[in-house]
Amino acid sequence: MKLVICETHNELGTKVAMEVANLIKNKPNCVLGLPTGDTPISVYKELVRMYKNGDIDFSQVTTFNLDEYLGISNSHPCSYNSFMQHNLFRHINIPKTSVHIPDGLAAFPDEECKRYESLIQTYGGIDLLILGIGHNGHIGFNEPGTLFDTPTHDIDLAFSTVQANSRFFDNIEDVPKRAITMGIKTILSARRIILMASGEKKSQIVHDAFTKEMTTNIPASVLQTHNDVLVMLDKEAARLFDK
Ligand code: GLP
């Protein structure tokens, strides 16, 4: 694991975006794995800026999002699909057919998970996967307790996740309680991983994930076993690494 500490949240976003841009320059038809959440918004802003500036071309890029809520449509304002359209896809020249996000209204979630997993393999796997981290150590929606050999699957969200994500919905009752997520096995099969975290509130969990013994109670700790992980933090999230 390599650790990069940035002075500010914006610098973190810019540096992660540069990693993505460098990959696209070296491999224009690369496959990206993308997260949602507040943390990557600065990355997407910078990627859009670079695109508008003529610095990146997304025309051959393929993307797979990490996860999606089950039970809401793609066009629901709080779906991860809407989040991605709003923050990235509608602003860049990526073909619609190159964007992949699990279907939150799949009638048979099991089938949708299998389809998604095999589609990732069809594209030759993920070149660069960007991850955030939940307060409970989840990656994607792999909640504590998820087995490390799980492929894309549907999952009950932890109550703390429902609570944390209720900030995007009118009421906590409106937050979906289930989701489809790339599994830990899917995540570990990415050739390169960047985990990003921002703010003091993430400092303890990110420190535990990379300095304590690996455990399914902290899903992100499994990244200790991957041979190409870059942990990129702002100063506040890195607070405990300084000691
Ligand atoms: C959600 C997503 C995760 C994300 C996490 C943290 O639960 N499923 O992929 O990493 O939120 O989000 P934030 O960056 O807003 O703290």
Ions, cofactors and other bound molecules: 2-amino-2-deoxy-6-O-phosphono-alpha-D-glucopyranose
Largest sheet: 7 strands, parallel
Fraction in helix: 25-40%
What's the total number of strands? 10
Please give the count of helices: 7
Morphology: globular
Question: Uncertain segments of ≥5 residues (pLDDT<50)?
Answer: none
Radius of gyration: 17 Å
Distance between the termini: 18 Å
CATH class: Alpha Beta
With strands numbered from the N-terminus, the spatial order across the biggest sheet is: 1-10-9-6-2-3-5
Provide the β-strand percentage band. 15-25%
Structural class: alpha/beta
CATH architecture: 3-Layer(aba) Sandwich
Q: CATH topology, what is it called?
A: Rossmann fold
Order of helices and strands: EHEHEEHEHEEHEHEHE
Mean pLDDT: 97
**How many distinct folded domains?**
1
Helix-strand blueprint:
Elements: E1 2-6, H1 9-26, E2 31-34, H2 41-52, E3 62-65, E4 67-69, H3 80-87, E5 99-100, H4 109-122, E6 128-131, E7 153-156, H5 159-165, E8 178-181, H6 184-188, E9 192-197, H7 203-211, E10 229-234
Parallel strand pairs: 1-10, 2-3, 2-6, 3-5, 6-9, 9-10
Antiparallel strand pairs: 4-8, 7-8
Helix pairs in contact: 1-2
The structure holds 2-amino-2-deoxy-6-O-phosphono-alpha-D-glucopyranose (GLP).
List key phrases describing it:
243 residues, alpha/beta, Rossmann fold, 3-stranded antiparallel beta sheet, 7 helices, globular, binds 2-amino-2-deoxy-6-O-phosphono-alpha-D-glucopyranose
